[in-house]
Amino acid sequence: MLTIDVSEARVRPGQVFTQHLIHLPKTGDLDDEVGLEEPVVVDVEYSFLKGVYLVKAKLKVKAMMACGRCLEPFTCPLEAEFYEQYDTATQVDEHDPDANVVIEDRIDLTEKVRAAIMGVVPMKPLCREDCPGLCSSCGIPQAEGGCACVKDDIDPRLKDLALLMEGLKKKGVE
Ligand SMILES: [Zn+2]
Ligand SMILES: [Zn+2]
The whole model's pTM is what? Predict the structure, then answer.
């Protein structure tokens, strides 16, 4: 559970407080959809004003993902932030799962953090911007040497060599 204690803010309306949270997602509360590599670091700013709590959070996390092109697993750094308003339990139904409620001076940020992370998970994550992906013939990742297939979109400087090889094959001189 990622919670903050906002009791100080309640007794000092208008003042902004900060908390630096380091949360290990080992308990399965955050990492069920993306594999989180390291603790989630959340910097929270909160204040109490006119009966409501204002919470601003910035979070950083490293997620383990499979590259959308070469399918290799890699560590993807993610950053997200959210801004929420919370009411005291007397103002809203504390059993309403969608309500942002402060219970006994504590705010549970777990769901908001999870949603924020899911919001920044890329649809097609890439291990690197220029990941060459997999060979369309043999399926071997093209990074680090790749495969031995001869391709149509070959480097023009190698094209002559490829034609030469073709010619040799036809002559049976392999
Ligand atoms: Zn890749
Ligand atoms: Zn290949």
Answer: 0.73
CA of 165 to the centre of ligand 2 (A): 16
Per-position DSSP letters for 37-101, written without gaps between them: -S-EEEEEEEEEETTEEEEEEEEEEEEEEE-TTT--EEEEEEEEEEEEEEEETTTS-TT-TTS-E
Nearest ligand, measured from the Cα of 74: 1
- Using CA atoms, how far apart are residues 52 and 88, in angstroms rounded to an integer? 7
Handedness of CA 114, 18, 107, 93 (dihedral sign): negative
pLDDT in tens, 32-64: 667 887 889 999 999 999 989 999 999 999 988
Q: How far does residue 150's CA lie from ligand 1's centre (Å)? A: 21
For residue 174, report the distance from its CA to the centre of ligand 2, in Å: 19
Q: Residue 124 CA: which ligand is closest?
A: 1
Q: Which ligand is nearest to the CA of 143?
A: 1
